[in-house]
Amino acid sequence: MRSWFNASLASFALLTLCLTPVPNAAADSDMDSKVQNLVAAHLAPAVTSGGLAVAVYTAGHVQFFNYGHADTAGKQPITEDTLFNIASLRKLFEATLVTLGALRGEINLYDPVSKYIGELNGDYLHRVTIGELVTHTSGLQLPTDHPPWPNESYTQAQFFDLLNAWKPSAGEAPGRQRIYTHAGYVLLQLVLERRYGRPIHELIEERILKPLGMHTTFLPERGPDSRAIMPSELLQETVQGYSDQGVPIGSPGNQQSYFDFPGTGQMFSTARDLSLFVAACLDGKVSDPQLHEALKMIQRERFEVSAKFGQAMAWENVHLDGVNIIDKPGGLNNASAYIGLVPKRNIGIVLLANRGEFPHENARYEVLPALSR
Questions:
Q1: Strand ranges of the sheet holding 347-353, from the earlier edge strand across to the other edge
Q2: What is the spatial distance between Cα 278 and Cα 182, in angstroms, rounded to a whole number?
Q3: Domain 24-87+225-251+268-372 belongs to what topology?
Q4: Mean per-residue pLDDT for 42-60?
Q5: How far apart are CA 200 and CA 191, in angstroms?
Q6: Contact 287, 295 (CB under 8 A)
Q7: pTM (whole model) above 0.85
Q8: Is the pLDDT of residue 14 over 50?
Q9: Which of 38, 63, 285, 337 is the most buried (most CB within 10 A)?
Q10: What stretches of the chain show up as alpha helix (H) in DSSP?
Q11: In whole angstroms, how far apart are CA 95 and each of 18, 135, 192?
């Protein structure tokens, strides 16, 4: 399944984001009403604990919807500028870094991971490529890829020991199957850091966040109390996390990871900032043409899982009746996040919830298809 790496890296034409109203004001108003009704019908009723921030992007126009509380005890309301733990949505940014590096000739997707991580000595992992890591087709899956949530952590040396001791299941081989792996993206982080000689948060900030104008998205280090190390004014804007039953888990800024080395926590962002990311993925004006192209390239399906599902670079492809959705869910036991795109309709949605198990499927199967018809 490696033939997709041969896809052309020729540049896309840079599209311009139009921020002025469309001439047909009635049609614009009709879409706004449709969005409001769908969010109210399919998303708002699911806010049974904590809160929810929603951003819906339709052809250059963003609507924000906020429900519930960032902190139930203090009755602090959710806004589009509230900071949430975005869990595995971080993978979208790492996939973009990899593709941007490939476009600039800095990384070859065929490169074996062991080219950058000399500590790997297993025969299987010596055959895994960067491209297979970023598409979840490496076959790699460690015990740390499954709940229960972390009650112990591994140093970088221990992580390498886990990798070297790992054995695939019978019949598995690099590039032949799709197996979702958190550990694979931690390994990808280390590849990026070693290739560029810089920490992952600096790479994401300089190459993606700043060019897109995303000024309230952070990848902070994790403190000894498993809380993000951020200035107090930012922590005041950060949600308290809850279980799906409404039980508080951790404190505002809570991060969870099996890995005890820098860069392995989660990102924090807002609905407003992620709406900028959605716009850039769809039709946004991006100052760096290669970044614009990278954002498009990571959406392309690379591995067919079934007739209904496919795997792209971090993104997942969902083929419904007449609607092709590109999306990425993320979640912990106290946080849920989701971005969904319908590129052919120039539609996108962001969901950020400060509780576990928020039903993002409502956006995938109800809201996005209805908006696309």
A1: 76-77, 61-71, 51-58, 347-353, 335-342, 323-332, 316-320, 309-311, 303-304
A2: 23
A3: Beta-lactamase (3.40.710)
A4: 96
A5: 10
A6: no
A7: yes
A8: no
A9: 337
A10: 25-42, 90-103, 123-126, 130-134, 156-165, 182-196, 200-204, 210-212, 232-235, 271-282, 289-297, 361-362, 368-372
A11: 27, 9, 10
For the chain, what is the mean pLDDT?
A: 92
Question: Quick one: tokens of 144?
Answer: 């740390």
Q: What is the pLDDT of residues 25-42, one digit of tens each?
A: 667 889 999 999 999 999
The pLDDT of residue 348: 98
**Residue 222 CA to its chain's centroid (Å):** 19
Bridge partners of 331, per DSSP, are: 336
Q: How do beta strands 335-342 and 303-304 pair?
A: unpaired
Cα 95 from Cα 102, distance rounded (Å): 11
Q: Are 135 and 312 in contact (CB under 8 A)?
A: yes
Q: Where in the chain is the domain with CATH 3.40.710.10?
A: 24-87+225-251+268-372
Q: Which residues contact 49 (CB under 8 A, 6 or more apart)?
A: 68, 72, 242, 243, 244, 245, 246, 355
Contact by Cβ (8 Å): 164, 114: no
| Range 154-161 contact pairs with CB under 8 angstroms and sequence separation of 24 or more | 154/258, 154/259, 154/260, 155/260, 155/261, 156/190, 156/259, 156/261, 157/119, 159/183, 159/186, 159/259, 159/261, 160/117, 160/119, 160/120
Place of tokens 């589009």: 80
Q: What is the pLDDT of residue 88?
A: 97
Q: What is the pLDDT of residue 151?
A: 82
pLDDT greater than 80 at residue 200: yes
Is the confidence at residue 23, as pLDDT, over 90? Answer: no
pLDDT of residue 327: 98
DSSP notation for 33-64: HHHHHHHHHHTGGG--SSEEEEEEEETTEEEE
Peptide bond preceding 148 in cis form (omega within 30 of 0): yes
Specify the amino acid at residue 218: F
CA 87 to CA 256: how far, in whole Å? 9
